[in-house]
Amino acid sequence: MEYSFRDCTLEDFDFLFNLKKENFKWYVDKIWDWKDDDQQERLRQDLKEHLKHKRIILIDNKPVGVYAVHTTEIGDLFINEISIVKEYQGKGIGRKILEEQLKENQKNGIRTTLQVFKDNPAKKLYEQLGFKVYGETETHYQMENVK
Length: 147
Known about the structure:
By secondary structure, this protein is of the alpha+beta class. It is built from 4 helices and 7 strands.
């Protein structure tokens, strides 16, 4: 399945919030209590600080996800977020995006890092792509690509 990207804008707020709720509410509910108002405010703050890092994933010009990365102060590429609407999960989109990113980073000698909720089944995909756990918090594994 072919995908493309476009820059994320503030007009994507509703799409991003619904995507976050669809994919992460159950994680948040395990630790805290999901409240739409609180999560909307968190998203507004995130967009103020990180909008330039976010790209909307498109299939046939339809928004199906978000991909956000940034370069850290030590030169690593940190994958802030990759999230795809449930209807398009399991179709290889996330894997393809990550494979292409890793190929480019490996060619340029750039370490790739991310963090993932401990209960997130995407951890298996990250491991298949060569990510290894190098640290953890109470809620997340911190992973690096060592392939």
